[in-house]
Amino acid sequence: MNNTLRTWIKDGLWAVAFAGLVAAVIRFASGLGAATGLTDATPWGVWIAFKLCFVALAGGGFTLAAVVYIFHIESLRPLLRRAILIATLGYSSFVVSLIFDLGLPWHMYRIVNWQDRSVMFEIAWCVILYLTVLILEFSPTVLEHPWLQHPILQKIAHWLHQLTLPLVITGIVLSTLHQSSLGSLFLIMRHRVNPLWYSPWLPSLFFTSAISAGMMALVVEGFIMERWFKRGMRFELLTLLGKWVPLPLGLYLILRLSDLFLRGVLPGALDGSWQSILFLAEIFIGGVLPLILLGIKKVRESRKGLLTSAVLILAGIVSQRMSLSMFTMYQAEGTHYFPSLSETAIALAIPAAAILVYLFFAENLALLGAEIPAPTDISTLDDPAAFAKQDTPGRAIFARRSGLAIFVVALALPLMFHPPANCNSQPTDPATLTKALEILPPSLLSSPASCNDRAATPVTPAKGWDVLTINGNNANYTVRFTHQDHQVFLTKELGSEEAACQTCHHLNKPGDQATACSACHTDYYQPQSIFDHTIHETTLGGNTSCTKCHSSVEHLPLTSVICQNCHTGMVPQAGQTAFNMFAPSYLDAMHGSCLACHIQEAQKQNKPELALCTTCHPNGQSQPNQTTANLPKP
Amino acid sequence: MTDIKNIKHKAFLYDATRCIDCRACMIACSVENKIPMDKTRIWVAGVGLKGEYPNLDRASMVYHCMHCEEPDCMSACPVGAYSKREDGPVLYNKDVCIGCRYCMNACPFGVPHFDYNKGLIDGAFIDKCTMCTQRIDVGLEPACVATCPTEALVFGERADLIKEAHARIAAHPDRYIDHVYGETENGGTSYLILSHVPFSELGLPPLTSKPVKEVSEAVMGLTIPFALTWGAVLTGVTVGVHEYNKRKENAAKQTVEAEKESEDAK
Question: Chain B residues with CB inside 8 Å of A501's CB?
């Protein structure tokens, strides 16, 4: 790999990181709704899936620490520093994406509440503690740098060196807990997880697969870094990893398959759905095949064979993490999750930034150089001492990256920033209610797909029904209630839709029940004013409010001001008094809701008896002889 | 009827055969709790019309928080933002919440609602039904119950409501499915459901009497014993391997020395 190519790759990583920065600003300024495709039906998305992968790839840290410090297998020590750096970056990525994902990240200190039943609680603590341990484990390597040779710093390095063993043991315990609890996370989500990926053994599956993934990440990283720095990688050490990885990987596969078999879920893998094909590919191409490949000594010890197996294993485990937490997650009918552009940008920017940090450390610390003296069969080796200087000189590269940043920001901002959809930005105020209650035909009531609506089940928002059939007292006497007509009428008379709704649904005042029909339709034969004196009195200030409407002490309609003084939108019809809000008589209201249709059908079907009084009121009785028993079942 | 304040174990009974899909409960909830209509804590799922005229049938399901006896959300929450009040309601405290949305994944009914449209400053919180604690504490029924025109939703003592539900089934065995959803589901809920169509059609998940959280809580119970044992094992192995290597080295040294000695002796 030559310098130009390296610079271009780095430019690419920087570009991804800059794009992520733009997305980060959008996420924190306008919220998750504007930045992601997350909804109530799918509260977790690609960030969580990536987080699981970061941690799986970081599994090499504790595996190598255990191998070197616990089992004293000194031959693998040269890989230790790299393993710990990868783990540190993996866990840092986890924390960074967590900050994006949390709705209220500044409440994070609340994790001090002891909640030992919560898996998330355990994860939070393990991440915080293990990341601290990792940083402490890695800092002696940093403190070797010639710029950091201050006596105090060296003293700290010495202490840390002394503390190595306790740190390592704590680290292994913490990461074991953390790796496995990421699996436990999905135990309580069983109803959302695809059965082929669910197992009560998920904690063990995550632990064993993380060991495999961590080891294989070291192999792949070894190959990449060899090309990048043109330096030998002690291939025999990578082969050693390849020789031992079948142990955790095989355990993982046996545990997973036998659990599925014993619980009788395994036949589901053969039903031909895309999930089952993904499952089979994951198991066979990402598990069994590399297991066989690595079992053959010749393949294991060839460069191509080892790299292929490592990539396959990583793909299999990444697929397991992503499928479990994202691809195959149950989604309610009519809902789908697809990460938005800015969400994807953040998800990719985090690993891109982590790789840049890795390269920075690799270029400036004795991460690769000091412990890898012997180049292998690579023929194009640079001078081993030159590994620190890979880039073109500082000022030029700074200018180049600044230009890149401006370009990426200018490109990403218009692509990623969408002002939130109307339904999303409603503040909690009475005007909102009015807006939500727009009178629309029911067919138009479903909200736009872009809204993060309650989508777990198909829902039509309550915005006013057209006509309801009310079986009020469950006595099987039904009444057609023209909800929309009431809404339109009251809105017109009261001047606001909010007031219209609250006329009947006025539960904001304690003690109120929903309004019965008889509250307005009070008289059987005469239209009645529905002016509500009590409401006016209460709203205007109780006993002191009389004079606001009544010009003299006599409380009579005659001494009152006219309604239009306040209700400016109210237009009295010809021949009506000031108190012109009339409800039809009970009789007219009831007839009104039945008769129109009866007369229409009588003409249409040429059955005049349909519109006769005696059809509904036989024997002259006042109550119509109509029950749900002789109606079509509602 | 006893005073609502004095009910020891408050619960709802929802009867799908009585619901007329008027959605007044949604409006009442919005007005009472001062939340916009599109964020209502109640949502109504409908089966839609079934059958052919004139033998038509329809069913709707009014959802809000089930107020489980063994809340999974509470078990999942890493910061203890959820609590179960002794008289029934499952409550959420937004001052503690970190917004991880694990409760939404854990809840088998998909109840907690998250405000995705808040940025860093105004904070994105979970919202869910509170059983109208502000009303029940002064002796009023929750708003959705108070507004229901057909008594499809009723409120009362859980044990009484279970009895009432079974009485309704006994009175009209032809009208109901012989099961009270929520009596045992997920360890029992404070929202009991009667229906004339299969519960799965109403969108209710099939659940056993064991709460969803059981497996994860069992695993969580092992954490600390496991951590201590694992730490001890690792320490033991470290020391053991170290000792073994040392002895092996010493033995090797001794053999070398012995050989030397024997050579010297020769």
Answer: 27, 31
